Amino acid sequence: MKKMFVLIAAVILCAVGLFGLAGCKDDEEELPPGVKEFVFEAEYVDLDGKASITASGSIQDVMLVFGDGTQADKNRGWSNGYYIHSTSANNFRLDFVITSDAAAEATIILRLGSLFGTVAFNASNYSVRFNETAVNFGTISLAGSTEEAMQFTDYRIPVTVQLLEGENTISLITLNNTFQAGNVGGPSVDCIKVRTTAALTWDIIDNPSFR
Ligand SMILES: [Ca+2]
């Protein structure tokens, strides 16, 4: 009974500074001519059947969304005021399904945080896939924080991808590791950002409203 209410979203865009304090615009970096930055909130992807194992038990489906969407939450740097609490299970997967109006090169930025102290995600413990092909993302180093004071870091993947005209899927997948006191720990996920000359759209699922 939860969430099959799918909102046809226009675009979540953050071209230049729309979000202001929301934290989705990371810096004053100037984008190349014609390039826009599109923000895709982790709280709006399909969470059906997903579960993260935390120290106090399993959290599942829409309950994976943390935050209240308030201005205070946005002021904490949580884009849109919500984030995915944790992605702690082997093969836990978030799929961002995006439609592009044209084939184009794109840069992907991940906005992630850690509940497990300082951690480094790399190909041995984490996977980023673009249209099911592994992306060589390097090493994502994150400082630790707590859920109430979660600090996110923008990590720009150093290689670009080639968007197809039509549907594209960017997947974030936790692999087996020992970050959570010897058990698998996946990052907290705020949003991803895609910079490209194409126009991007997606259909969001309003998970926060179904908690
Ligand atoms: Ca968010």
Tell me the total number of β-strands: 18
Tell me the name of the CATH class: Mainly Beta
- List cofactors, ions and other ligands: calcium ion
Average pLDDT level: 91
Percent of residues in β-strands = 35-45%
- For this structure, the CATH topology is Jelly Rolls
CATH architecture: Sandwich
Total domains, how many?
1
- Structural class by SSE content: mainly beta
- Approximately how much helix is present in the residues? under 10%
Low-confidence blocks of residues: 1-25
Shape: globular
First and last CA, distance: 11 Å
Profile the largest sheet.
Answer: 5 strands, antiparallel
Which sequence of SSEs, written as H and E, runs from N to C? Answer: EEEEEHEEEEEEEEEEEEE
Number of DSSP helical runs: 1
- As a whole number of angstroms, the C-alpha radius of gyration is 16 Å
Per CATH, the superfamily is: Galactose-binding domain-like
Please describe what this structure looks like.
There is one protein chain. With 211 residues, the chain is an all-beta fold. The chain has one domain (6-210): Galactose-binding domain-like (Jelly Rolls), CATH 2.60.120.260. 2% of the residues lie in helices and 38% in strands. The protein contains 1 helix and 18 strands. The strands form 6 sheets. Strands 2, 8, 13, 14 and 16 form a 5-stranded antiparallel β-sheet that branches. Strands 11-10-15-7-17 form a 5-stranded antiparallel β-sheet, with no helix packed on it. A two-stranded antiparallel sheet has the order 1-18. A hairpin with a 2-residue loop joins strand 3 (51-54) and strand 4 (57-60). It is globular and about 45 Å long. Mean pLDDT is 91; it is low at 1-25.
